[in-house]
Amino acid sequence: MLHVRIVADGYTSATVFANQGQLLLNVLIGVVLPMLVALVTHRVAAEWLKGLLLLALSVLGGLLATISVADFHWKDFLTAFVIQFSSAVVAHFGALKPLGVTGSQGVIQQGIPAGIGGSTTPTRVGKGDNG
After folding, report:
1. pLDDT band at residue 16, thresholds of 50, 70 and 90?
2. Pick the residue with more confidence: 94 or 9?
3. Mean pLDDT for the chain overall
4. Please, are residues 27 and 34 in contact by the beta-carbon 8 Å criterion?
5. Is 24 within 8 Å of 84 (Cβ atoms)?
6. Structural domain count of the chain
7. In Å, how far are 2, 61, 78, 103 from 18, measured between CA atoms?
8. What domain range includes position 77?
9. Disulfide check for 84: which of 4, 40, 58, 116 has CB 3.0–4.6 Å away?
10. Does residue 15 have a pLDDT over 60?
């Protein structure tokens, strides 16, 4: 992975993620992640569950993208994770949900009836029921 070292006034330095192919791959993974979340969750699943699943998939994707290079650096993992998660959120709210691809009324979730978080029937115990 190509690293660019910036030194300002000799006091601070930062490693900049500069591999364009890796950057593009992370953005494309981020665009696909909302569709993957829509595939594995139920249409009526709670928003926090979908968000948590998106966060977990972003962590996994960032880890896999970082492991794919020869040497592992935490800064590269955090950069890949942030790029994937932020591009997933932007893609979902900026393009995929308005176009009707993702979201609870999207094409993906209407076409697939099952998924995690789909319990819609509340369990109630009536008066006099002890078991």
Report:
1. very low
2. 94
3. 80
4. no
5. no
6. 1
7. 6, 18, 14, 33
8. 19-111
9. 58
10. no
